[in-house]
Every structure is written in structure tokens, then in C-alpha cells.
Please model this.
Amino acid sequence: MRATLVAAALLAVASSVTVSDTGEAAPEQAFSRARDAFVAVSGTGVEYLQARQTPSGGFAEPGGKASPQLTAWAALGLRAVGARLSPAAVDYLVAHEDELPSATDVELVAMAESVLGRRPERLLARIRGAQRKTGRIGPTVNSTIWGVLALRQAGEPAPRASLRFIIRRQARSGGWSWFAGGAPDSNDTAAAVEALRAGGVRGAPIRRALRYLRRLQNRDGGFELIPGRGSDSPSTAWAIQAFVAAGASVPNGSLRYLQRLRRPDGSIRYSARYRATPVWVTSQALPALARRAYPL
Model:
């Protein structure tokens, strides 16, 4: 289904959106708040992830090779709960900056370097250079969302044009797709909520997005990527983060869904049926379990 917004809908959204004058409404990097979260979730993946760091400083799936993308996800997950990483992790990310092939890879690694205490100047320059007059950052809606998150994680203001670009790509259903005109999904919708809230946006776009997400929650408490696909951990984690970012109550049963999928080794299953990419899935689940939204 092609997600479109008619002119009347755009006018309605524009009249009910509030954006801060500076676009600097995202919380500062206050990792002291995460200490209590570390105590609460220390048995639900922290030690598992820490054990997956390789001698190179990067993180790898069991039987796999380290990559900057997976290392960035692990860094975000661990820092969300207040866990420390060895300095080798940021060194690994910096050493692989020139190998990042896409805008979203650049944005993801920039966020990770920021949470690890390094200002990613070269990556931020690439993000700024990818911004168009329309506000789009990189080639897609998804890369624009992540561009805003990366800039805010580094303490920079969210470009107002980019916030408007994201708002205008919201579908009638209230959700977002990763590309303009695509079918919405829970993950991109949740990320859009986090980016908009980080830029100071309130009002109708956020309320409509949360209503969309609620329709994707199943009886088991989990959230699904798209209707009919079934609950999975990453989609549930993203949804939880969206509600946290919006200052709304976390949906009943969603945290319990993630906790039920914890394996004896501390990793989180992808779903009740599948156990895949446990390092990536666990990295995505930790911020939600700690009730932390991006930017951290």
C-alpha cells in the first residue's frame, strides 16, 4: 500500500505540530541515570554482549567476524544501561570509518562514537554534507531519521528542514516507512518518533504514531514489524523506546515479552520461534529494557 498524505492532512499536521526554536530538546548525555538501569538489566544480556567483543575491539556474532555496524549497536546497547566498554571499541570504530558504505552506517557509527565519549567530526561532516535543501539527509526517510539522531547524540541541533521532511513523510496510518511512499512499519515509525522528539517536536505527529504502534501490539505483549508478521524482539524494543521518547506509558506486557525471550546465556531471542543474530538482537533489546530512548 502506498503511504501518502493529501494536502488537507499536511495542513492539519502543520497546524498541530510544535517544534522548539532551537531543535535542541533532546536530553543531554546523562549516563549517570543509567546506573540504576544497569542493576535492573545486568542479568539480561550485558555480560553476554561484553563477552562477544573480539581482541580487535569490535563485536561479532557467534562464529562471525567483527563489523563496525554490529560494534556500534553493541556500544549503544551497553551504554544505554551504563555498562563500560574497553577503549578498544571506539578505536575499532574510528579505524573503520572509511569503510562505511551507506549514510545510515555513517550515522549509526557516529552515534556510537558519541556515546563512547569521542566526537566523530569526520562522520558528522559526512552527515552534514548529505543534507539537501528539502531537509532530506542521505537517500531515504530512514537515513534522514538517523541523521537527526546522530546529530542530536553529538549535541548538535536538529535541522528544522529535516524535521519537517520527516513529518511530511508520515502516512495516513500514522506510521513511517524507510523510504518515501513505502508501506509503514513499526521500526521506522518508532525511530521517527525518537528523532522528532529529539528535535523538540510534539503534538499530532507523535500521537498518531503511537496510535499506529499500538495497533501492531499482539496478545503476547510483543510488537510486530508489519501487520500479520508476528511479534519479535527488535520491533518490541523499538516500540518501547518510542513510547519512552514520547513520555507515554510503556504498553502493558511489552517489557515482559522481552524478558520471556531471555536465554540462559543472557542473550535475547529474535522471537519465540527464532533465535537469530543474538548479539544484534540483544543490543537492540537493552535500551528498551532500561527504558532509554535514542539519543541516549
